[in-house]
């Protein structure tokens, strides 16, 4: 919520804004941008240089976007919604490519999308795999599906009860067993289908659910998944959960396929942010696209603003907005430092502390999406469950490079050797240089983590104040505001240390560090004030002092953010290390 | 009865009843979900004559999620980790289908021994060995079968403690000795030469300096 920065000098006004904003947010999340703009000092559509224009979308809103694409494809190809959905999903929602490929060879596109059974070819069997155990009831009826006919995914087949059928999975042969099959006609009992689909969705987060027969590439269309999960088979509660997760997975896939959309990374949140101006890699060297999905709260228990007010603000102070970076997977707001350099810093901090047990650890982060991956079983060919990135556990390099050049897997050994040699020759001075920045960075991070305590303490003080003075709940909000401001500025400060570590020596860096110093001093002053004991008779003065200092801190923060952001737009920042998208540094510092 | 238990019990029984098959599945303890499988090494391969034991763990959502298998018996093969026995095989991962059984999966492992896939290796060093010098690779694989899988002549080898570490690493005594004579400990030399794939034609690509550098690490 960018409007947090618009802090008017008249605090009475400000608090009204805050309350109205919260109520507004509760009422219409979708119109977030519109409603907030009313409270902004800056004219509509204009952003500060460190802000980016974006829009927050609910899952329903994204589903509407998807629907539009689906309708479009239905109209052009004359296929049903199920088929259109599978086609779009198989092409990562790239309509243009889909249309082109489909016009070129509809059959092969339909087969690749798992909608149609391919003509049998002699060498379909894969090495080291036993041949598919086909159901005795399978027929070739659908194998001859002509490409000229309008491909329709099968209407969800009514569960049938064939005679003398043994389910090849559960070995159940009871006469009243009901079965289902996809277009490929591979029959399985309805119970097995339900368990299988649930497991695929729940355990693997998979939305492209293949037929259960070995080597069969037919994919269950949405209607089939919905029919199975709303039938009597299996645990109704599990099924309902799986079905809603399935919808979410399809939406996530759509969002992930679209460079100008990003799913809110907060656990349990299903909102999406649209930010076309940050959709290209080149835009990310000019700005930091910090966005917010419009919801608040953590752990799937998003709280509404009205709840916050009812509970006397207790939750309000902790229910943080879902702020994240549109350009990279780093948690929270890493302004003013751009994504690439912020990631370089994080990687550096991690490598330096973990080189020793790097290879031995059982969890690693996916090199693509940074989600944590646990090694399961022992095979080094890893596939990230979240983004499907395939990589090598040993060297963390992409698996695609291992296909023909598997020997690059020795990179780990070599890397360890280079690191060790570097460590020996690394001069004391440069280590101290790193530690200088690192300690300050870590300190602000630590303080931000402890802010939960500060929030709790402040809340207590706010309650006391209402008892010992004539101030109302609304009037003691200045404390809350101050704590929030301190927290936010510590975040800025934290990243300025990472930035300063990589900034090339010179005037620009000196000015940057001057601004950093002023902000740091202001933040520490305000922090101290917040920690000081409260005397009932001096509350009015305290209120004035805290409010003044909050405004000052906010201005200092504004200066750092604004100046750094302008520096990126003007190409003013020079680095002491190689940074993608920037000129080579004049001299390297290690 | 729980569906997973019913299916596993049935699979074990089917396997027991099939007298013609060489694939065996047995329980290790009370748990029906932690099993041991075994099969003979395929004829006409370096694994011939060996008996290969597999650790089988049946996950909660079996057969909808793949069974977990790894070699208990040490085996020298590009798709099997020589250290941990972990296996790189598509059907144990994304190509798994619930119609596959423990037995059919064990048969797939057996056929994996016949047809290594060095382009999708689990053990990169073994794969390198396989790619650069197939004859030498087969010699080492045969030796491993002898000393670890109870292949022909294994008794003698076992009695002579744990076998010959130079042969286990797939190296030549003459090569190892050359560097040992320079004063490096034998274990270190074996380790370095194995890492460098100091075998067959590849030796030409590895100057002595490179070996020394590796030894000094
Ligand atoms: Zn069944
Ligand atoms: Zn099928
Ligand atoms: Zn969110
Ligand atoms: Zn970022
Ligand atoms: Zn990933
Ligand atoms: Zn690798």
TrEMBL record, chain A:
Domain RING-type, chain residue ranges per copy: 163-413
Biased amino acid composition, Low complexity: 127-138
Biased composition (Acidic residues): 1-32
Keywords attached to this entry: Metal-binding, Repeat, Transferase, Ubl conjugation pathway, Zinc, Zinc-finger
Metal-binding in keyword set: yes
GO biological process: protein ubiquitination
Matching Gene3D superfamilies: 1.20.120.1750, Zinc/RING finger domain, C3HC4 (zinc finger)
Domain of life assignment: Eukaryota
CDD domains from the UniProt entry: Rcat_RBR_HHARI-like (cd20356), RING-HC_RBR_TRIAD1 (cd16773)
Stretches the record annotates as Disordered: 1-34, 116-138
Name of the protein described by the UniProt record: RBR-type E3 ubiquitin transferase
Organism: Pleurotus ostreatus (Oyster mushroom)
UniProtKB/TrEMBL annotation, chain B:
SUPFAM superfamilies, per database record: UBA-like, UBC-like
UBC core domain mapped to chain residues: 3-150
InterPro entries: UBA-like_sf, UBA_C_fun, UBC, UBQ-conjugating_AS, UBQ-conjugating_enzyme/RWD
Coiled-coil stretches noted in the UniProt entry, renumbered to this chain: none
CDD domains xref list: UBA_II_E2_UBC1, UBCc_UBE2K
Keyword terms, alphabetized: ATP-binding, Nucleotide-binding, Transferase, Ubl conjugation pathway
Active site positions: 88 (glycyl thioester intermediate)
Signal peptide: none
Enzyme class, broadest EC rank: transferase
Gene Ontology molecular function: ATP binding; ubiquitin conjugating enzyme activity
EC numbers for this chain: 2.3.2.23
Family (UniProt): Belongs to the ubiquitin-conjugating enzyme family.
Protein name: Ubiquitin-conjugating enzyme E2 1
UniProt source species: Pleurotus ostreatus
């Amino acid at each position: 919520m960018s409007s947090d920065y618009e802090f008017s000098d008249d605090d009475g006004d400000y608090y009204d804004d805050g309350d109205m904003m919260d109520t507004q947010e509760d009422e219409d999340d979708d119109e977030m941008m519109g409603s907030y703009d009313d409270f902004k000092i800056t004219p509509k559509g204009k952003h500060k240089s460190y802000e980016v224009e974006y829009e927050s979308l609910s899952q329903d809103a994204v589903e509407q976007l998807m629907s539009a694409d689906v309708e479009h494809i239905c109209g052009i190809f004359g296929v049903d919604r199920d088929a259109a959905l599978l086609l779009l999903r198989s092409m990562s929602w790239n309509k243009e490519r889909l249309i082109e490929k489909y016009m070129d060879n509809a059959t092969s596109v339909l087969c690749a999308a798992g909608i149609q059974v391919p003509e049998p070819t002699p060498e379909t069997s894969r090495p080291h795999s036993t041949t598919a155990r086909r159901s005795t009831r399978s027929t070739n009826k659908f194998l001859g599906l002509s490409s000229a006919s309008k491909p329709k995914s099968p209407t969800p087949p009514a569960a049938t009860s064939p005679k003398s059928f043994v389910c090849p999975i559960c070995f159940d042969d009871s006469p009243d067993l009901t079965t289902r099959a996809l277009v490929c006609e591979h029959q399985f009992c309805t119970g097995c289908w339900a368990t299988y689909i649930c497991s695929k969705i729940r355990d693997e987060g998979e939305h492209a659910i293949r037929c259960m027969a070995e080597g069969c590439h037919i994919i269950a269309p949405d209607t089939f998944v919905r029919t199975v999960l709303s039938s009597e088979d299996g645990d109704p509660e599990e099924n309902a959960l799986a079905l809603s997760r399935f919808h979410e997975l399809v939406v996530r896939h759509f969002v992930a396929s679209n460079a100008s959309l990003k799913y809110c990374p907060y656990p349990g949140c299903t909102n999406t942010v649209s930010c076309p101006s940050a959709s290209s890699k080149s835009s990310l060297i000019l700005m930091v696209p910090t966005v917010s999905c419009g919801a608040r709260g953590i752990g799937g228990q998003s709280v509404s603003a009205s709840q916050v007010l009812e509970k006397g603000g207790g939750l309000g102070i902790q229910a943080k907005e879902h702020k994240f970076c549109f350009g990279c997977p780093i948690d929270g707001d890493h302004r003013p430092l751009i994504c690439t350099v912020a990631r370089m810093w994080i990687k550096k901090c991690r490598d330096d502390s973990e080189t020793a047990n790097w290879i031995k650890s059982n969890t690693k982060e996916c090199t693509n999406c940074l989600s944590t991956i646990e090694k399961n079983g022992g095979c080094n060919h890893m596939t990230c469950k979240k983004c499907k990135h395939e990589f090598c556990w040993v060297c963390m390099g992409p698996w695609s490079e291992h296909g023909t050049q598997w020997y690059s897997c020795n990179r780990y050994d070599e890397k360890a050797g280079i690191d060790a040699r570097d460590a020996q020759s690394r001069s004391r001075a440069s280590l101290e240089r790193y530690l200088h920045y690192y300690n300050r960075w870590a300190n602000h991070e630590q303080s931000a983590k402890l802010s939960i305590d500060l929030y709790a303490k402040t809340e207590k003080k706010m309650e006391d104040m209402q008892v010992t003075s004539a101030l109302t709940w609304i009037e003691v909000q200045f404390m809350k505001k101050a704590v929030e401001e301190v927290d936010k500025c510590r975040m800025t400060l934290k990243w300025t240390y990472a930035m300063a570590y990589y900034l090339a020596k010179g005037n620009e860096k000196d000015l940057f560090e001057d601004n950093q110093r002023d902000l740091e001093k202001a933040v520490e002053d305000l922090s101290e004030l917040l920690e000081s004991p409260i005397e009932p008779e001096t509350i009015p003065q305290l209120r004035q002092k805290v409010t003044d200092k909050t405004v000052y801190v906010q201005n200092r923060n504004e200066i750092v953010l604004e100046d750094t952001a302008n520096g990126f737009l003007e190409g003013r920042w020079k680095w002491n290390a190689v940074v993608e998208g920037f000129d080579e540094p004049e001299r390297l510092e290690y | 009865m729980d569906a997973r238990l019913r299916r596993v019990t049935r699979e074990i029984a089917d396997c027991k009843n099939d007298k013609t098959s060489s694939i065996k599945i047995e329980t290790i303890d009370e748990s029906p979900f932690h099993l041991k499988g075994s099969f003979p090494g395929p004829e006409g391969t370096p694994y011939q004559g060996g008996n290969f034991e597999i650790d089988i763990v049946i996950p909660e959502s079996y057969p909808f999620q793949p069974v977990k298998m790894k070699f208990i018996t040490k085996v020298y093969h590009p798709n099997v980790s020589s250290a941990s026995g972990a296996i790189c095989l598509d059907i144990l991962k994304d190509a798994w289908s619930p119609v596959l059984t423990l037995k059919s999966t064990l048969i797939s492992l057996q056929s994996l021994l016949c047809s290594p896939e060095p382009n999708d290796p689990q053990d990169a060093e073994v794969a390198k060995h396989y790619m650069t010098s197939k004859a030498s690779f087969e010699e080492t694989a045969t030796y491993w079968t002898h000393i670890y899988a109870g292949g022909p002549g294994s008794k003698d080898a076992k009695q002579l403690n744990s076998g010959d570490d130079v042969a286990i690493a797939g190296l030549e005594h003459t090569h190892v000795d050359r560097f040992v004579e320079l004063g490096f400990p034998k274990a270190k030399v074996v380790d370095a030469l194995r890492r460098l794939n100091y075998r067959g034609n590849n030796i030409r690509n590895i100057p002595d300096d490179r070996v020394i550098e590796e030894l000094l690490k």
